[in-house]
Amino acid sequence: MSVPAQLIELRNVTKSYGSVCVLAEVSLIVDKGESLAIVGPSGSGKSTLLQIIGTLDRVTSGEVLLDGKNLAALNDLQLAQVRNRQLGFVFQSHYLLPQCTVLENVLVPTLARQRAQGRGQKVETSESRAMRLLKRVGLGERLHHRPGQLSGGERQRAAVVRALINRPQLLLADEPSGALDHASATSLGQLLVELNKEEGVTLIVVTHAMDLATRMGRVVRIEDGKLMESGMTDKFALRTPHSALK
Fold it and tell me: Does pLDDT of 122 surpass 70?
């Protein structure tokens, strides 16, 4: 039986702001193609953990490896390239540009990246990919609408497509359903699960919503800056790097 390749590995990650320790020696492995939920009370450090994985913040000590690359060794320009080429972000607020159409909003991340060069093969253009994905999430008739003309659920679906447009390896979602009504939140959760499989993208979700968390393939809990196992279901499992167990 083949062992899935690791995409993310955290080794004894600690994050402090002055005398306040937000994360304490966190170790975690996330495999390629996996879906993972991080749950915990407000102020527990889960959003900080997601920001560190997403290169939006740096560790105080420890290591974060993305596809074997030590992110701590990269400068700000290199980290920006990692964010644009390998990562996609979905936040609680959609952050769509109000003056742009849905299609234009989705294409914004492509402006900072050169078009991929196909070696004798036809490469799907950014615009055709955007239109295909927007149709896939039910926004095929909303391409030229502006965010103010969309419902909350539609705006968040557009934000998901924007996060996927550059074919990231890793999709990070921070309370993506937090501002939605129950029906829209349920629909968004199902969509994330489906896109995780269809796009082959690794998915990490930070959420308070247990109905969203339990849709993921694995769930871990963070309390007082420490990752903890939970006996609630067999989905609650913490896998640590071998190096952290020595």
Answer: no
On the 0-12 / 13-18 / 19+ scale of CB atoms within 10 A, 47 is buried
Task: State the Cα–Cα distance between residues 175 and 192, nearest whole angstrom.
Answer: 12
* Torsion angle (degrees, nearest 10) of CA 132, 136, 141, 142: -90
**Phi first, then psi: what are they for 212, rounded to 5°?**
-75, -45
Strand order in the sheet with 35-39: 87-90, 170-174, 202-206, 35-39, 218-223, 226-228
Class of domain 6-113+125-245: alpha beta
Tell me the one-letter amino acid at 224.
D
Are the CB atoms for 9 and 65 separated by under 8 Å? yes
pLDDT of residue 42: 86
Structure confidence by residue, pLDDT tens digits, 159-215: 999 999 999 999 999 999 888 889 999 999 999 999 999 999 999 999 988 989 999
pTM: 0.87
Q: What is the C-alpha separation between 119 and 106, in angstroms, rounded?
A: 26
In whole angstroms, what is the distance from residue 214 CA to residue 227 CA? 17
Domain regions of the chain by residue span: 6-113+125-245
Backbone angles phi, psi at 64, to 5 degrees: -125, 120
User: What is the percentage of the chain residues whose pLDDT exceeds 70?
Assistant: 86
Q: How far is the CA of 79 from the CAs of 6, 83, 87, 147, 218, in angstroms? A: 20, 6, 10, 29, 27
Q: Average pLDDT of 79-86?
A: 92
When the pLDDT of each residue in the chain is averaged and rounded to a whole number, the result is 87
- Nearest one of 140, 200, 151, 149 to 179, comparing CA atoms: 151
Q: Is the dihedral of CA 81, 85, 90, 94 positive or negative?
A: positive
